[in-house]
Backbone:
C-alpha cells in the first residue's frame, strides 16, 4: 500500500502531508502548499514568486502614495 513519498519542488526535501489542513509541508525550506499548488510548482509555475511580486507592487503603490503626501 503506499503513501507515495513526495519531494519538495523547491529544495528536494521530503514533504510531509498535513492531513487536517490538506497541505504538504517541507521541513527543509518551510514550503507549505496544497496539492494543486504542488502540481503548479512541478509544472514550473512559481506561486511564491507571484505572491512576492504582488506584494512588492502593493508596497510600491503605497510608497508612491506616501511620497506624494510629503
Ligand atoms: Zn523544501
Residues:
Amino acid at each position: 500500500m503506499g503513501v507515495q513519498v513526495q519531494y519538495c519542488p523547491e529544495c528536494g526535501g521530503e514533504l510531509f502531508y498535513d492531513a487536517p489542513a490538506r497541505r504538504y509541508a517541507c521541513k527543509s525550506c518551510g514550503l507549505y502548499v496544497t496539492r494543486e499548488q504542488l502540481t503548479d510548482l512541478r509544472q514550473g509555475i512559481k506561486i511564491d514568486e507571484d505572491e512576492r511580486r504582488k506584494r512588492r507592487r502593493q508596497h510600491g503603490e503605497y510608497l508612491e502614495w506616501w511620497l506624494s503626501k510629503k
